Amino acid sequence: MYYIIYFDIAGLIMTLFLLYSYLVFTYLPSWNNRIYVMTLVAVVGATATNIFSCFSDFWPQKFLFWKYAIDVIHLLIGNFVPVSFYIYFYSMTHKRKEFTLKSQLFMMLAAAYEVIAIISSPFTHFVMYFDDTGIYCRGPGMASLF
Predict the structure, then answer these.
(1) What percent of the chain has pLDDT over 90?
(2) pTM, 2 dp
(3) What is each CA distance from 133 to 55, 62, 105, in whole angstroms?
């Protein structure tokens, strides 16, 4: 099945427009708003790196290091998006002083697992890897990131 990149491009344009309009017209400096902007920036970063990683899949095998680097960065940013949504929802329902280390523990453990699994993936092929012909493949640990 072919990957349709036009949805990513449209999503990037719409999210950039949303971020711009929010910052220019409705932004008020508060904890909730800073978290919301952080979430939008994470979505923009994840979408932009996904577009870039789609094009890097066609690079020759001699650029394997850069292909891994781009995909690892994309996975790190993309997996930060749910964490930033969690922080945003938490900021909407709690005061900032309630965001203690105890309330962050589960989120930090999940994020630590994701970072270790993704960064080690070029060596372990746990989350993703490129086969001998340079084709992007998902590893057995990709489902655990979802």
Answers:
(1) 41
(2) 0.84
(3) 16, 11, 41
